[in-house]
Amino acid sequence: MLLTITNLRKAYFDTPVITVPSLHLEPGTHWFRGINGSGKSTLMRTIAGMLPFEGEIWLNDQYEITQQPIHYRLGVNYAEAEPLYPDFLTARDIIQFVGKAKRASKEQIVMLAEQFGVNQYWKQPTGTYSSGMLKKVALLMAFLGQPDFILLDEPLTTIDDRAAQILFGIIKEQQAKGVSFGLASHQDVGLSELTIDRVFLVENGEVKA
């Protein structure tokens, strides 16, 4: 089993935002559909280990997110829907920092930077970037290292058609290598020619197959 979620509850000020009594994900590509405010981003950030929560999340039946946090986070990568970075840092600074944490090689970093076109501006401070440039930095970092599961939150927002096609190509390459994906989007990623194995509806803080 790729991911097993049990009794997950994430709340803000005692108000539940996402509740998942039980969810089992087989290896593959999963699309989490839902309107803005449905809880998709909270679910993604929780699975990525960015938010505290109640319950358990297991990766590959081996690593529980709170019990083996390092191994878990090496296996799960995440790209935010609307990334923000310190204005004074360059994309290369940020990518190299995350790459070290993800145990990515220099060759992988350079290759991904060239594929996404980030190398054309990554020496400039991120405060000068457009939203599309920031998004490509986030998408690049989601592929660093050797993850088993890559979470992409609203992957198509703020990027142009050319960047979207590049992203689809990289996803397909990783799918062929056995990497699984969780795509959270209100847009129809089913029209992207990507192989989607299972679709979930995220609605009112609940996840339904």
Task: Tell me about this structure.
The chain is α/β, with parallel strands linked by helices and 209 residues long. The protein has six helices and ten strands. It has helices spanning 40-47, 69-75, 91-101, 106-116, 131-141, 161-176; strands at residues 3-12, 15-25, 29-33, 54-59, 63-64, 76-79, 149-153, 180-185, 198-203, 206-208. The strands form two sheets. A six-stranded mixed β-sheet has the order 6-7-8-3-9-10, with helices on both faces. Strands 2-1-4-5 form a four-stranded antiparallel β-sheet, with helices on one face. Helix 4 packs antiparallel against helix 5 (131-141). The two termini are 17 Å apart.
Write the layout of secondary structure elements.
Blueprint: E1 3-12, E2 15-25, E3 29-33, H1 40-47, E4 54-59, E5 63-64, H2 69-75, E6 76-79, H3 91-101, H4 106-116, H5 131-141, E7 149-153, H6 161-176, E8 180-185, E9 198-203, E10 206-208
Parallel strand pairs: 3-8, 3-9, 6-7, 7-8
Antiparallel strand pairs: 1-2, 1-4, 4-5, 9-10
Task: List key phrases describing it.
6 helices, single chain, 31% helix, 209 residues
Mean pLDDT over all positions: 94
Low confidence ranges: none
Distance between the termini: 17 Å
What would you call the structural class? alpha/beta
Beta fraction? 25-35%
Spatial strand sequence of the major β-sheet: 6-7-8-3-9-10
Overall shape: it is globular
Written as H for each helix and E for each strand, in order along the chain, the element string is EEEHEEHEHHHEHEEE
**Number of E-type strands:** 10
**Biggest sheet features:** 6 strands, mixed
Number of helices: 6
